[in-house]
Amino acid sequence: MKNILFILFFATIFSGFTKEDPPKTAEVKLKTSAICGMCKKRIERDLGVTKGIVGSNLNLDDKVVTVTYNPKKTNPEKIKNAISKIGYDADEVVADQKAHDALPDCCQKTAAAHKD
After folding, report:
1. Strands, DSSP E only, in the chain?
2. Does any domain span residue 30?
3. If exposure means fewest CB atoms within 10 Å of the residue's CB, which of 66, 90, 94, 98 is most exposed?
4. Structural domain count of the chain
């Protein structure tokens, strides 16, 4: 009987070691209202200091920012809100007006796209 309990005990302990851990990072792609290289720098810099975000890369050709994040610390809705607070649209979340108005003129939605 002791041997059976001993085997069951260790089988239970070691079965926990074989389970796959969920991914430590996730990725989300969000459409933004970014226009230029200054927008790219601002978004990537500000997202870089946002809790739970591991990295970001804004593609200016399609205005999509790819964000790698820790799902235990943040989620896509919080990331969209962070982008809004920087002054840019993020998918359906509209830019915070005060933050948008504080952007340089060339980075505001009414500005024409330009190359740096």
Report:
1. 26-31, 53-59, 64-69
2. yes
3. 98
4. 1
pLDDT for residue 113: 56
| Residues 6 or more apart in contact with residue 109 via CB below 8 angstroms | 33, 35, 89, 95, 100
11-14 contacts at long range (C-beta below 8 A, 24 or more positions apart): none
Q: Report if residue 94 sits inside a domain.
A: yes
Residue written as tokens 């809004």?
A: 84
- From the CB of residue 89, how many other CB atoms can be counted at a distance below 10 Å? 19
In whole numbers, what is the pLDDT of the chain averaged over residues? 87
Confirm if 47 and 58 have CB atoms less than 8 A apart: no
Give per-residue pLDDT as tens, 69-83: 999 999 999 999 999
Other Cβ atoms closer than 10 A to 109: 14
Segments forming the whole domain that contains residue 101: 26-107
Q: What is the CATH number of the domain that holds 73?
A: 3.30.70.100
